[in-house]
Amino acid sequence: MMVRNPIVILLLGLVPGLGHWAAGRKGKGFIYAFFVFGIAAGGFLLGVGANEMEIFAMGLVVAFLVWLLNMLDLVIYLLRYPNGKPAPEHHAAYPLHGPQSYPSYGAAGFGAAANGAPPPPSAFDGSANGSASGYGSGQSHGTGAFGPPPPNYGIPARQDDAGERFLTILLSFIPGLGHLSLGLMQRGLTFMIGFFGLLTMILFVTALSGEGGFLVFLGVLPIIWLYGLFDAIRMVQRKQSGEPLLDRSIMEDWDDHRAGGRRSRLFATVLSILPGAGHMYLGLQRRGLQFMAGFLLSIYLLDTLELSLFLFLVPILWCYAFFDSLQMQSRYAMDGFVPDVPIVSGLMNQRKWLGLALIAMGLYYVGDRLLLDVFDVFGLNYWAHELRYYFKTGVTALLLLGAGVKLLFGGKAREGLAQ
Fold first, then answer.
1. Domains of the chain: which residue ranges?
2. I need a surface site. Which of 141, 164, 310, 317 has the fewest CB within 10 A?
3. For the chain, what is the HEC assignment?
4. Cβ atoms within 10 A of the Cβ of 121, count?
């Protein structure tokens, strides 16, 4: 059974040969599948037999190149025939649209125009007979000199909407290119520069600093890519429905959305990927700051104190911040305003303890570096390592004991006040 949807065929084409098979090209589908899987399997068997995995790697490379050829062939076919290849006999003998010439009219006694041109529309409505218009001997046939007009006479061929939609989606795999094909230069350049500019900056900062942790921000790129893809689909649907397309950046769309003091829920959801950023966008500064500081500080402390046992707290905190942002967005959409209630109330009243904690962290780093230098001079690197390990263990134990005592006696004190 042939599949008519070009997008489905393209997705099926990710499996070697399956896309061609779905498009009715069963011979090519079998050939591509045979070569891709055959080369990969042959390379594996030869590599295992010779105990040389390089042979298997070479087989995978060759199979990948054949797969690329399979995808290129499928894409070219879909661009030529987005609605499926028509049957040769139907396509050649029975054109579906446009004016049609009737060379047999002259032989039948009805006459024909010069150079074999089709008769004018007036010849079908009886407004002129054959002798008056120069088309034959004046005989009448039906409602006009040439009888009733053929189906779809004079109607131009319908624009291939499916082909345009497929081409736009295909080009949108490179962010912004689909918008450029629709004539949206500013909008397309916004997506293109945003995607590749962010990618370049992340790689540049990572190479400059030598810290691989900056590569975490590459997770933002799939979000930009997906947003650009669905935005291109939305634009081509507007064009095909007859709506005018305005060439402006997505930032201008967001500004128009917030012209009445409203915030974009989509933008707030995207910002919520970083805990606290979505809250700040909604105007919840204190709540967002606590989420952001808590998330980043927890990662830093768990790494510094080597508390890998408690790394499960990081995804829990992220999920809590993300779904809290979604809840705040729903409240904002209904009421238009959400009060800025911090997660931990009264935190700013504990400035003394916060100051002491910052001073202790500063002393720790100064002492850590000085001790390392002093112990290195005297050749006591082993003792420096042991001292740092036991110090981190002691600090962790004190923090856990303090938190447990606070929860235990703090809860009893609140129960006493309630009674």
1. 6-84, 162-257, 360-405
2. 310
3. CCCCCHHHHHHHCCCCCHHHHHCCCHHHHHHHHHHHHHHHHHHHHHHHHHCCHHHHHHHHHHHHHHHHHHHHHHHHHHHHCCCCCCCHHHHHHCCCCCCCCCCHHHHCCCCCCHHHCCCCHHHCCCCCCHHHHCCCCCCCECCECCCCCCCCCCCCCCCCHHHHHHHHHHHCCCCCHHHHHCCCHHHHHHHHHHHHHHHHHHHHHHHHHCCHHHHHHHHHHHHHHHHHHHHHHHHHHHHHCCCCCCCCCHHHHHHHHCCCCCCCHHHHHHHCCCCCHHHHHCCCHHHHHHHHHHHHHHHHHHHHCCCHHHCCHHHHHHHHHHHHHHHHHHHHHHHCCCCCCCCCCCHHHHHHHHHHHHHHHHHHHHHHHHHHHHHHHCCCHHHHHHHHHHHHHHHHHHHHHHHHHHHHHHHHHHHHHHC
4. 13
pLDDT for the residue 158 = 46
The pLDDT value recorded for residue 351 is 72
- What mean pLDDT do residues 67-95 have? 69
Q: Is the pLDDT of residue 133 over 50?
A: no
For residues 108 and 115, what is the distance between their CA atoms, to the nearest angstrom? Answer: 17
Average pLDDT in the chain: 74
Residue 189 has pLDDT above 80, yes or no: yes
Average confidence (pLDDT) over 88-104 = 48
d(CA 365, CA 155) in angstroms, rounded, equals: 81
Q: What is the pTM of this model?
A: 0.47
Q: What's the CA gap between 264 and 281, in Å, rounded? A: 9
Reduced 3-state DSSP string for 277-339: HHHHHCCCHHHHHHHHHHHHHHHHHHHHCCCHHHCCHHHHHHHHHHHHHHHHHHHHHHHCCCC
End-to-end CA distance of the chain: 75
**pLDDT tens-digit series, residues 156-169:** 444 456 677 788 88
